[in-house]
């Protein structure tokens, strides 16, 4: 950075951008000539043919399965799918908008002023801050990376990463709407998620190592205006979270219609097995935390503890989170952090579920 003394540590240790620039000499001798590759006209022709084949297949499928789409099974699936999407979408949009506003207009240095320096004290404070300053799963990971870069203890930043999408007000209100009249489910979700996040942070503060974290560059241009960051963040998170909501609603409808009822009843009658199955579904479906309560409530054959496992494990550990965390902190971090999260979430699910549900 310009303006620093020549003998300062920052100038002696070049940044990633400086090292890349030093190897670039503005020459394009190694670039392939423009005439290489398929001509542009051929690519356009291929795209048109692919699109035409896709439309033909859709028309054929419509004519072939028209009668099947009016039977009772499909109508039941469509009803469940539509109900979950319509119930969850307002909370999803509001949660994504709030998360984007926090990302765009609240400087990450503000979090540092309220989080203590000592990791043991900072962990519960960061966990509580995650409930006051909500964020979806996609936004919480880069926000945690920004906190670590600005001097916040890694254990505290990771606790914020876990608690923000799990216990924020939007998620708790959505849970209360999905489980109407069951305030014990809202309390159980809050206590189990907060306890799992804090204990995970404390364990990481005791046994975690700094070299397990491989920090990546920021996702947003620091010089970009706030409204640009807000727009890009909201569009990105809404497209991703909305897609996962649709997939989760379709999967929930399919489970309710396709899976034989006796299979579901057999698994649901086994307390431990049913909770493990719901935890596995939460990891695989990767549903946004603002919408997962509606999917869990639709699987009414499972026990309340199993539903709680779905809502506690999902916001902290799923396939999309594993991918985002690996891209932000590296696979060495994920291979150690993911098993720790799974263990703590399951322990608190069975503990709180057994006490309150």
TrEMBL record:
Gene Ontology cellular component list: plasma membrane
Principal localisation: membrane
UniProt keyword Glycoprotein present: no
Record membrane topology: Multi-pass membrane protein
Signal peptide: none
Lineage: Bacteria, Bacillati, Actinomycetota, Actinomycetes, Streptosporangiales
Compositionally biased residues, Acidic residues: 23-32
Spans through the membrane: 46-65, 77-106, 155-180, 186-205, 241-259, 265-287, 294-317, 337-356
Protein keywords: Cell membrane, Membrane, Transmembrane, Transmembrane helix
Localization in the cell: Cell membrane
Source species, domain of life: Bacteria
Protein name as annotated: Permease
Key word Membrane present: yes
Region (Disordered): 1-40
Family as reported in the entry's similarity comment: Belongs to the UPF0718 family.
InterPro entries with a match to the protein in the record: DUF318, UPF0718
Family matches, as Pfam families: ArsP_1
Polar residues compositional bias, start-end: 1-13
């Amino acid at each position: 950075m310009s303006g620093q003394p020549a003998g300062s540590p920052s100038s002696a240790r070049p940044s990633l951008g400086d090292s890349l620039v030093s190897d670039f000499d503005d020459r394009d001798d190694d670039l392939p000539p423009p005439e290489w590759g398929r001509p542009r006209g051929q690519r356009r022709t291929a795209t048109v043919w692919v699109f035409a084949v896709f439309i033909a297949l859709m028309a054929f499928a419509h004519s072939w399965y028209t009668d099947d789409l009016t039977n009772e099974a499909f109508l039941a699936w469509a009803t469940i799918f539509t109900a979950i999407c319509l119930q969850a979408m307002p909370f999803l949009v509001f949660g994504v908008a709030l998360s984007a506003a926090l990302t765009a207009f609240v400087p990450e240095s503000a979090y540092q002023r309220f989080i203590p320096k000592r990791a043991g004290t900072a962990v519960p404070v960061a966990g509580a801050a995650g409930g006051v300053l909500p964020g979806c799963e996609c936004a919480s990971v880069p926000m945690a990376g920004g906190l670590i870069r600005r001097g916040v203890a890694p254990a505290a930043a990771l606790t914020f990463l876990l608690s923000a999408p799990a216990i924020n007000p939007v998620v708790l209100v959505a849970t209360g709407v999905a489980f109407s009249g069951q305030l014990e489910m809202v309390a159980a979700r809050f206590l189990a998620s907060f306890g799992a996040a804090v204990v995970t942070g404390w364990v990481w503060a005791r046994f975690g190592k700094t070299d397990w974290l491989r920090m990546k560059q920021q996702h947003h241009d620091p010089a970009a205006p706030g409204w640009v960051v807000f727009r890009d963040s909201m569009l990105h998170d809404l497209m991703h979270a909305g897609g996962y909501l649709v997939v989760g609603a379709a999967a929930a409808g399919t489970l309710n219609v396709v899976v034989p009822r006796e299979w579901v009843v057999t698994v649901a009658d086994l307390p431990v097995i049913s909770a493990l199955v719901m935890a596995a579904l939460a990891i695989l479906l990767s549903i946004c935390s603002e919408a997962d309560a509606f999917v869990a409530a639709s699987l009414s054959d499972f026990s309340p503890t199993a539903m709680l496992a779905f809502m506690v494990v999902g916001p902290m550990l799923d396939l999309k989170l594993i991918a985002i965390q690996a891209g932000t902190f590296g696979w060495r971090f994920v291979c150690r952090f993911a098993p720790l999260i799974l263990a703590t979430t399951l322990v608190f699910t069975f503990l709180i579920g057994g006490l309150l549900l």
